[in-house]
């Protein structure tokens, strides 16, 4: 079966080919797609984009007011949609909006001081389209309930490594997804925050639109207040290098290495240290200053250049802004 497609804006050809029919748009107009399957031609209904999406400005990334407690009586709790060592996640509704409610059992030392939990202190001040929004929270008995928007999709971990992923990622969408991850992380760094646990499991992708958000700020820190020694290890070792494991003050280049790991896994569908069978081997490689082999990315040369720029000694790595710029070029190439 031969499939060909062509995209048009206001009757003007934009993109055609045989690989996929995914198109990213950022200009107003009437869009439609013509698909030819063997000798049968089908045309989609016109999609009108009335206005160009504005760029994210500094004013748009700030809360009008800091997020705080909400009244649990206004929340309708529904089915359990996730469960793990942290607790459970329910789907729900709040003021007509679909939400996810994460329930965390508080340890005794936080029962009377739960509002000062570091994750809440950081998360409640953040607002960016590529960071999972904290809508509010409340305490019920010995548990903390955290309310966020419901993301109808999956995390990258399942999309990359599950034998039966919830939905398929088109190759054309990968630069767009990664651009959003880098955009959210760049915002964190501008706010002097290091995520410290970037990995595919902490990246959520919406099924219909590929809108992507970073989640889980449980070990995130402000760079100015982070301690420099006797620091307990935070994050996931598979996505960290030596500097993250030696008690150094958290710095942006630590997240840059993790972004490189995410990009590598998304494009190769392999673990970044696929030859490692136990933590001891990983520890030995990291402390001998080895970096993952990127030969598997040779067919994606521009992506390989980005990953190689992340897998360097800390002070030589790309900045998150440089990664963002390089990914933006790749996304622009996919638009038309």
From TrEMBL:
SMART domains from the UniProt entry: S_TKc (SM00220)
SUPFAM superfamilies, per database record: Protein kinase-like (PK-like) (SSF56112)
Record bears the keyword Lipoprotein: no
Molecular-function annotations in GO: ATP binding; protein serine/threonine kinase activity
Keyword Electron transport: no
One Pfam short name: Pkinase
Family: Belongs to the protein kinase superfamily.
Protein name as annotated: Serine threonine- kinase CTR1
Taxonomic lineage from the root: Eukaryota, Metazoa, Cnidaria, Anthozoa, Octocorallia
């Amino acid at each position: 079966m031969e499939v060909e497609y062509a995209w048009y804006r206001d009757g003007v050809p934009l993109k055609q080919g045989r690989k996929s029919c995914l198109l990213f748009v950022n200009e107003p107009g009437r869009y439609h797609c013509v698909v030819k399957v063997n000798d049968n031609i089908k045309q989609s209904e016109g999609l009108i984009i009335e206005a160009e999406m504005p760029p994210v400005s500094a004013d748009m990334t700030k809360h009008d007011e800091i997020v705080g407690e909400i009244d649990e009586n206004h929340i309708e709790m529904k089915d359990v949609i996730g469960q793990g060592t942290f607790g459970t996640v329910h789907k729900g509704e709040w003021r007509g909006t679909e939400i996810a409610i994460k329930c965390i059992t508080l340890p005794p030392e936080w029962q009377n001081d739960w509002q000062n939990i570091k994750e809440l202190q950081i998360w409640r001040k953040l607002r960016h389209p590529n960071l999972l929004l904290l809508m509010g929270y409340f305490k019920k008995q010995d548990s903390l309930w955290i309310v966020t928007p419901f993301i109808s999709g999956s995390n990258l971990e399942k999309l990359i490594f599950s034998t039966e992923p919830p939905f398929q990622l088109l190759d054309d969408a990968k630069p767009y997804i990664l651009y959003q991850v880098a955009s959210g992380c760049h915002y964190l760094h501008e706010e002097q925050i290091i995520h410290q646990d970037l990995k595919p499991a902490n990246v959520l992708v919406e099924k219909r639109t590929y809108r992507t958000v970073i989640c889980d700020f449980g070990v995130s820190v402000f760079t100015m207040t982070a301690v420099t020694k006797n620091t307990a290890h935070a994050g996931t070792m598979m996505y960290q290098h030596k500097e993250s494991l030696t008690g150094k003050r958290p710095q942006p280049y630590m997240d840059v290495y993790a972004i490189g790991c995410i990009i590598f896994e998304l494009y190769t569908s392999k673990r970044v240290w696929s030859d490692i069978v136990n933590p001891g081997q990983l520890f030995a490689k990291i402390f001998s200053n080895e970096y993952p082999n990127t030969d598997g990315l040779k067919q994606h040369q521009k992506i390989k250049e980005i990953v190689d720029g992340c897998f360097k000694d800390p002070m030589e790595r790309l900045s998150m802004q440089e990664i963002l710029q390089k990914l933006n070029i790749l996304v622009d190439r996919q638009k038309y």
